User: Fold 2-phospho-L-lactate guanylyltransferase from Halorussus aquaticus.
Amino acid sequence: MRVVVPYAATDPKTRLADALSADERTAFAEAMLADVLAAVRATGREPELLATAPVAADAPVTVDDRPLTEAVNAVLAETDEAVAIVMADLALATPDAFGQLFERDGGVVIAPGRGGGTNALVARHPEFRVDYHGTSFLDHLAAAQEVGAAVEVVDSHRLATDVDERADLAEVLIHGGSEARRASATRAAEPRATRKSLEWLQSAGFSLASDESRVGVVRDE
Ligand SMILES: Nc1nc2c(ncn2[C@@H]2O[C@H](COP(=O)(O)OP(=O)(O)OP(=O)(O)O)[C@@H](O)[C@H]2O)c(=O)[nH]1
Ligand SMILES: C[C@H](OP(=O)(O)O)C(=O)O
Assistant:
């Protein structure tokens, strides 16, 4: 199975512009990408990048400047092999979560994002094509049905959490260190697992803040 990670290399994460400068969005997107690539690799598979522009990354890179849907569909059209499409902003992804996705049988296996998106999928049916943005989860269910593919849906908090907006940064601060906390509670001698996106947010001065109704983030300038 190929594991393809689409990556907007130029001006990424524009919906985080109210929290991060342009350079910071690039640096944070790179940190999330590194976490995703490491988690994929820990499942025993080699990820490949499908990027809008050349990018220095620890994986082979194909540059395709077409919009996301077109670029991904070109990959699906060029191979009959199973292809996993894994987004680069899944900052909480773990090898276990990706393993559940990759190992699940089905012509099309979908890990929906909160809000109706498609954060990761596996396409085994040769005629299945993607249509991202909007409620792409529902669109992908319909597209799979149209080509007669059996669909499986992966119910995973870690794969459902893509980091798009300021409020999503709180998810990284809440859950991004939980494996390390568990590891240090049970196996004190083992090195602390590090998640680059969590480290980046912390070193940029972000921390959790809550009032009586909701949890968010604040930043020490
Ligand atoms: N190859 C490719 N990847 C893309 C493109 N647009 C987004 N991506 C990637 O697709 C995934 C989902 O991206 P989005 O959250 O929808 O878009 P984004 O550009 O990261 O962020 P926004 O600017 O806030 O919409 C991420 O891995 C992006 O890096 C594109 O046009 N081409
Ligand atoms: C790629 C797109 O991501 P979103 O714009 O929902 O973050 C989708 O999941 O269809």
About this structure: The longest strand covers residues 2-7. Residues 6-8, 12-15, 50-52, 67-68, 71, 87-89, 164 surround guanosine-5'-triphosphate (ligand 1) (CB under 6 Å). The mean pLDDT is 94.
